Amino acid sequence: MLLVADGGSSKTDWILQPQNNQNPQKFATGGLNPFFWTEKEMIRSLNAFKPFNAVADQVSEIHFFGAGCSSPDRRELVSNALSHRFKNAFVAVESDSLGSAIACCKDKPGIVCTLGTESNVSFYNGEENFPSKLGLGYILGEEASGTYFGKILVTDFIYERAPKEILKAFDREYRLNKETVIRNLYQKPMPNYFLASFAEFLSICYDHPYIQNLLYRGFDEFVKTHILLYPDYKNYNCHFVGSIAFHFQEILKSVTDSYEINFGGVLEKPIDELFAWIKEKEGF
Predict the structure, then answer these.
(1) DSSP letters of the chain?
(2) Which of 6, 145, 229, 256 could pair covalently with 261 via S-S, beta carbons 3.0-4.6 A apart?
(3) pTM score over 0.70
């Protein structure tokens, strides 16, 4: 049995290829980011997911592409946790950025951008992935991510800088106040996900000029900061992955068109394309 996973910090998508060429099965679990989780916590999470009980001993090969898996030591943590749960499986762990690159580009070169809860960019040469060295995390960077937009929305609400109708709609949706913001940002874990949770508001009030301008400015900042740093960017297709890119691709494309970027397309999630590529490559 083949098991392929695309892992984020809050959620992991899995596809299992059973024996005898039966239809693939899809699962979703919590995130397995080794930057936030210890090996024991990841083992505990995997063991608690009951659908794996029936297949754990039959899985022969696992390909895991995950957030936080850019360094060998963190990849080893995830590999150890998976090997503990799937004792008979060969386990390969790579970064989520490589998984996105494979899903978008297959064996062709291209620029691959992730715009979801977090944001990043990399160049894929058809075999290897080369992440940008400019990533500064959600406090200083991650332009056009859910965290980035959530930070602006919350700040504009608390400072009452947004239009009155936006302030009313935001208050009606979240009942937020300064004390709640301070507590979640400075006293609770994973404040970036607290901020990213407000990105849903972009869809709720999408037709309002304030929201469309916010999206345009965020995408423009991402392009200028990350894509234009590649001097030959016009020679490659530029692909996008993630919920922010997927749901607001019309505005995103208008920004990329203004810089004559070759818009390669958008995937909300890379798991289906990634699974198909791995399945064919490994001969399952």
Answers:
(1) -EEEEEE-SSEEEEEEE-GGGPPPEEEEEE---TTT--HHHHHHHHHH-GGGTTTTTT--EEEEEETT--SHHHHHHHHHHHHHHSTT-EEEEEEHHHHHHHHHHTTS-EEEEEESSSEEEEEE-SS-EEE-S---HHHH--TTSHHHHHHHHHHHHHTT-S-HHHHHHHHHHH---HHHHHHHHHTSS-HHHHHHGGGGHHHHTTTSHHHHHHHHHHHHHHIIIIITTSTTGGGSEEEEESHHHHHTHHHHHHHHHHTT-EEEEEES-SHHHHHHHHHHHHT-
(2) 256
(3) yes
